[in-house]
Amino acid sequence: FLALVRKDLILYFSNKRALIITLAAPIAIAAFFGSLFGNSDKTPTRVPVAIVDFDKSAITRQIILGMQGDSALNVTELDEAAALEQVKTGKVRAAVVLPAQFGELSSRAMFGNGTKPDVKIHYDPSQSIALAMVRGMLSQHVMKAVTQSMMGSGGGKMIADARAEVSAAKDMAADSRKDLITLFDSVERVQKNNSTGTIATKTAGSSFDLPFKTVALEATGNQERKYNSYAHSFGGMTVQFLLFMGIDLGIGLLLMRRMGLWKRLRAAPVSRALLLGSTIASGTLIAVILMCGIFGVAMLAFGVRIDGSIIGFIGIMIAFALLAASFGLLIAAIGKTPEATRGLAIFATLLMVMMGGAWIPSFIFPEWLQTVSLAIPARWAVDGFDAMTWRGQGLDAAGVSIGTMLAFSAAFTAIAIWRFDWEE
Fold first, then answer.
1. What is the pLDDT of residue 399?
2. Are the beta carbons of 155 and 136 closer than 8 angstroms?
3. Which residues contact 37 (CB under 8 A, 6 or more apart)?
């Protein structure tokens, strides 16, 4: 058994070029995905947005200035044709068009007694997720500008016009008319106080803002360290490429069978379980060594840390290494020929790592897919690495993932020993 394991290790590590590629590929792709999702200590990418102002009023000017000062947006003021062209070419995510009389109509519509102006938003359909963000940010700055205009001393005419329209509205309930007129009286008193300097404000004409502010707190295992997006990326890419290593292991067994090497080995006084068991053992050792190298680079070069249980992390590594090796043996057992098996095995592996959350976190999946992915062994490996690194969970969390992966490994091994054909 030890001689067979030693033979596999020597053969694998003697191919220096293949070994370097096996280590470099997951590191390079994990670094790319980690930088793509970004860390919270970096300046966030501002969404490019164009804005068109046909009104040219004080309200629309304040809206534009507010959006330009927003850290989440990169706002450029253009004419409509140029803004639409920028959206079509993908240079901006959306173009907001403020129509003529927007300031006046929006102020009247605020009390429900006027026509609401239509604000067109041209958006890039390939990045439609930005539409909801632009809508939300636009609503915030419109409410702030309109409210300040109405409550400030310059909104006297608007309030007077609104009072006249409410008083003349025949289809409005008497109670609603009375409440609105009372509101207008209160607003006029605020305007009067602002104009006479009775109420101290930060800026002339008063300034109204949202009545709350948010404080963003990261829910990570170590509150003193910010979330490191490379932690998930390295865990996911490690899972993917070690499963690929398992495919190579299985294809190697099929090639050995074709060359008649299994017949020669069976001529020795060794059992079928010992031959296949030594292959799993050597594959597990190789996977553990590779994981040590990959995560070593992740920790030294990209700041990935084990904020959870170190014992749990080691247990996750060993359990997944065994899973990858037994998966390779399963590939060899169900494969008829190396040529036919390779393509199908790669497709199945890519599907497994994609559904297992190795590329993107599984919480982004639809709810039904999150449930289905629990039947995918890669999901438990990725969740286990996440739990032991940036989530900072304890040994009990690792135990669930370890137990599940060991159960998959036992099932794969049993099927492989049962179905493995010694001749092609």
1. 95
2. no
3. 229, 232, 233
Tokens at 416, concatenated: 């492989």
Indicate the pTM of the whole model: 0.69
3-state per-residue secondary structure call for the chain:
CHHHHHHHHHHHHHCHHHHHHHHHHHHHHHHHHHHHHCCCCCCCCCEEEEEEECCCCHHHHHHHHHHHCCCCEEEEECCHHHHHHHHHCCCCCEEEEECCCHHHHHHHHCCCCCCCCCCEEEECHHHCHHHHHHHHHHHHHHHHHHHHHHHCHHHHHHHHHHHHHHHHCCCCCHHHHHHHHHHHHHHHHHHHHHHHCCCCCCCCCCCCCCCCCCCCCCCCCCCCCCCCHHHHHHHHHHHHHHHHHHHHHHHHHHHHHHCCHHHHHHHCCCCHHHHHHHHHHHHHHHHHHHHHHHHHHHHHHHCCCCCCCHHHHHHHHHHHHHHHHHHHHHHHHHCCCHHHHHHHHHHHHHHHHHHCCCCCCHHHCCHHHHHHHHHCHHHHHHHHHHHHCCCCCCHHHHHHHHHHHHHHHHHHHHHHHHHCCCCC
The answer to whether the CB of 394 falls within 8 A of the CB of 308 is yes
pLDDT digits (tens, 9 = 90+) for 49-70: 999 999 998 889 989 998 998 8
Beta bridge partner(s), residue 53: 98
Pairing mode of beta strands 73-77, 47-53: parallel
What's the whole-number mean pLDDT along residues 264-276?
A: 80
Nearest to 59 by CA among 17, 19, 10, 117: 117
Rounded Cα–Cα distance for residues 234 and 250 (Å) = 24
Range 298-328 burial, b when 16+ CB lie within 10 A, else e: bbeebebebbbbeebbbbbbbbbbbbbbbbb
Confidence of residue 218 (pLDDT cuts 50, 70, 90): low
